[in-house]
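Continuing from the previous page of notes. For each protein in this section, the sequence appears first, followed by its structure tokens. Read the first protein now.
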Amino acid sequence: MINRTLRRNIRRSLMLAAGLMVPVVGMMASAYAIGVEPRRVDFNKRNMLLPRLKPGFDGYRIIQISDIHFDSWIAAKTTLPQIVERINALEPDLIVITGDYVSTVPHDEDVEHLRKNFANLQAKDGVLAIMGNHDHWHDVEKLRVMLREAGVIELRNEVFKIKRGDDTLHIAGIEDHLQGLSDIDLVSEELTGEECVVLLAHEPDVADISAPTGNFDLQLSGHSHGGQIYFPFKGAMWLPAQGQKYPTGHYQLGNMQLYTNRGLGTTLLPIRFNCPPEVSIFTLRSPNIASATPYPVQTTVKAAV
């Protein structure tokens, strides 16, 4: 009788403890998703073997940042200057920013913070940028002025050429696809199909249009934030239109490679879980150089719709 009562009491105590643990674990996970992970920026390095890259650009380093969403990224004011400092320490050849600087109407204070941080970026061949869907939704002209004042060159269905001796690297940038402003055909008119071209496109799923042209060697995109909240065995909780097929990481589409950056900021909810913000560091490799060694390519992903 005593043993039975003891077992019953132990069982009740365990059930009570388990019941108390659930909200505690939930509170800890929420605190991490709000207070820790949005500040834990991954600096991801990759070698990118590009068949059409000229030997003069072997070892060329491009750093990509994306989706800053300054007004909704809880860690923006303190973290962005630290990111800029770390990027500059890496001495990149080129810095590219693939859109979505804000989430809502840009306030003067936020725009000034962005201008100062972008003006502090240092790269041998400068800083190039494109606009994202959120930028077009909220006073895009104000953001364009900010980029110009920071010394950043915006590409609007244009091609930027970089020279190393007799060799040339082309950086193409298209306007936002979700807004119906992208023009791959217009950009392609400036290309011969023989040069190495890196394409900046905010939405990654544009790759289904850009890859078949055969004009682009590497597409760099953002937009999806990797889902912000990524559950093991299930995937992203939510992904935006034009960011569902190639939501994060490295892909091969025919002869074109695609890399989707997880972005720095947040939208909808100011949290990240199992999907930290990212700065992407690409070292371009020419097939004519024996030391060129590409990283493994991610070819499939489970995209939650």
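Done with the first. The second protein uses the same format. Note its length before scrolling.
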Amino acid sequence: MLVLFETSAGYAIFKLLDEKKLQETKNLYADFESPEKAANVLKLTQFEKFEDTTQALAAATATVEGKISKPLKKLLKRLVDPDVQEKLLVADSTLGKAIKEKFSFDCICNSSVQDLMRVIRSQADSLLQIDEKELAAMRIGLAHSLSRYKLKFSPDKVDTMIVQAISLLDDLDKETNNYIMRCKEWYGWHFPELAKIIQDNIAFCKTVQRIGYRTTAVELDLSDILPSDVEAQVKEAAEISMGTEISEEDITNIRHLCAQVIEISDYRAQLFEYLKNRMMAVAPNLTVLVGELVGARLIAHAGSLLNLAKHPSSTVQILGAEKALFRAMKTKHDTPKYGLIYHASLVGQTSAKLKGKVSRMLAAKAALAIRVDALGED
């Protein structure tokens, strides 16, 4: 019975001297306590060393995909004996199937084999007769190369940034709305007319932060925050306001809240710019068709750009309206014509009668654009 053991240095083939050891896995750890004991259980018969890190990386990626790499193929060809049906213990069942199809080995992969691999790993340096430090260096080098390979070729990694950014953008919008509502209610006790005069929320917060007590509004210059006509209305309303008096501590806390709203608003603008750049880099065709926000929400809803590319245009069209779809199917009513794609500018500009047709047409083109972005090469 042979054992195929994969290392960062190369492929090793061991001869299992006592096959009964595989059935008595409880005693395996005791048999591998020292290099001397391990040598009584296993004997190294073949070792195919990797020439360099590039070959090691190619072999590792082939193993992950369940394929037989060139060094492994070369090693197994030397072991094949047409007269003997040899059993081969492997750690990966997918790789075992590939070896069984290509060669005449009877591959075994079960929990007992996994336990055996674990104890071999603990004594790998002595069994392979390689220095422990050298083996550790090879292991680290291969791990770094494999990580770089996975990051480079995984399409899911880049669009994770988009999913996180659009989720954070929505959270910031909710938080800002709550803070502004609280701010208007709080300051409304002192100067209730201000919220009716200034419609823009950020301008409102900047004005409150600047004037503090309403009595100081007449003396202050607000031209850098408000238009001249609105500034005049604010100063006029401040003189005849029906609001109550509040303490210095109240004004301080209201100003802190306004500063928080302004800070969040500035960060949101910065985050939106980042999202625009990310979308143009990851999914430029989708961005041109539906816009940055709708495109990002579609990607976030599907989980990744690659997952979104797997959806047909009919699914892209109603993505985000799943509850309405299942409710309509349950009650046997008309199904929804659009989901997140409704917020695309092209659908928004269309008359109500044609919105369904335009969303269907846009979804068809968007589905093609998504596939080009996800699977196309530069």
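What the second structure shows: The chain has three domains: 2-153, 159-274, 283-375. DSSP finds 20 helices and five strands in the chain. We return to this in next week's lecture.
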